[in-house]
Amino acid sequence: MTSTSTDETLLRERGLRVTGVRLAVLRALDGHEHSTADDVVRSLRADLGSVSVQAVYDSLHSLTAVGLLRRLEPAGHPARYERRVGDNHHHMVCRGCGAVADVDCTVGEAPCLHPVTTHGFAVELAEVTFWGLCPRCTAGSVPAGTHS
Amino acid sequence: MTSTSTDETLLRERGLRVTGVRLAVLRALDGHEHSTADDVVRSLRADLGSVSVQAVYDSLHSLTAVGLLRRLEPAGHPARYERRVGDNHHHMVCRGCGAVADVDCTVGEAPCLHPVTTHGFAVELAEVTFWGLCPRCTAGSVPAGTHS
DNA sequence: GCCCCATACTGGAATCATTCCAGAAAACGC
DNA sequence: GCGTTTTCTGGAATGATTCCAGTATGGGGC
Questions:
Q1: Identity of the residue in B76, B121, B127 whose CB atom sits nearest the CB atom of A134
Q2: Distance from the CA of A78 to the CA of which of A34, A146, B19, B55 falls in 20 to 30 A?
Q3: Residue B141: what pLDDT?
Q4: Mean pLDDT, all residues of chain B
């Protein structure tokens, strides 16, 4: 219960009500970084017995909104969520199977890169996604140009 | 018709049949970079009279597959297509309205960045997306944290 | 210049992730 | 404990995209 009571504190600090679903979502993401909403739903059903899809989406959204979760959305794949939110790290995505791995950012805070021309935009963050093949997919190699 | 006959050559060079839909798709994207599939459908209906949605998706896919188009998929927005394919430029996306602008890459060829740790991945390209607010949205400012 | 076959296109239904909605249940300040 | 506000439930709806079966068309071969 240690991590649960810590999560409880985190929720209160951010001004969110402490609910079973929210605690379970946070717990589900411990040790399962980069889970999709569907992964979380399945995890919670195994854990709590039953939860509505909507409750999970609501929780993921509110937790993301207060900065307890970070959402990443690799092109062509459903959104994934992670608890690592303190730094400005990046991601490596396998164009074969969609596997995601974290990549440290050498700068550590956003935006870590700055565009040559801004076109008048107020740049807030630079999202870097490395695409390639994970070790497993490199073996049974997937032809290039399938990035989606 | 100059650009049309050039496009015809491009299609043949890549081993694609020359069809009205494909030529029209290429034409539609001239001067309308970063169009969505839906934009293209509308453009083609105004141009050719009628086209099936599927024909447009098929064309966009095959043109992308042979490297005549590049697809970009900003998180939370439908895919967009552009004809600028020779270099490895990046994009700036407005988190308010979804507007997209090109940003030159200082390196020019992929991958222009290299991850600190590769986790055994064979890295092929580094996709950089700058998020921020376009001039228009900066005016009637959209609160932060809405990046999706 | 015509025929044939692989490839494209049509229209309509299906899929997937996500959101909308209205009502029931739970959180927590008092 | 009580009431208000927020959250959760279940089901229907949405938007982008894909699947499918049938028809049409491009272009290499004759």
A1: B121
A2: B55
A3: 67
A4: 91
pLDDT tens across B37-96, in order? 999 999 999 999 899 999 999 999 999 999 999 999 999 999 999 999 989 999 999 998
Assess whether the previous peptide bond of B111 is cis (omega < 30° from 0): yes
Does A122 contact B144 at a Cβ distance shorter than 8 Å? no
Residues of A in contact with B113 (CB under 8 A): 128, 130
Cβ-Cβ contacts under 8 Å, A121 against chain B = 92, 94, 101, 130, 132-135
Please judge whether A123 and B131 are an interchain contact, meaning their C-beta atoms are less than 8 angstroms apart: yes
Which residue in B15, B11, B63 sits closest to B37, CA to CA?
B63
One-letter amino acid for residue A126 of the chain: A
Residues of A in contact with B125 (CB under 8 A): 130-132, 147
What's the pLDDT score for residue B108?
79
- Bridge partner list, B133: A122
Question: CA B87, CA A96: separation in Å to the nearest integer?
Answer: 24
- Give the distance, in angstroms, between residue A48 CA and nucleotide D2 C1': 29
**pTM for this predicted structure:** 0.90
- The pLDDT of A96-120, averaged and rounded, is 88
Please report, for residues A67, A72, A111, B145, the alpha-carbon distance to residue A128 in angstroms, rounded to integers and kept in the order given.
19, 11, 10, 18
Q: List, in sequence order, the alpha helices (H) in chain B.
A: 2-13, 20-29, 37-48, 53-65, 135-139
Distance CA A129, CA A92 (A): 6
To the nearest 10°, report the CA torsion of B93, B131, A103, A84: -130
Tracing tokens 């870097």 back to the chain, one arrives at A128
B28 phi/psi in degrees, rounded to 5: -60, -30
Asked if B36 is an interface residue toward chain A (Cβ–Cβ < 8 A), one would say no
* Least confidently predicted of A1-10, A38-47, A121-130: A1-10
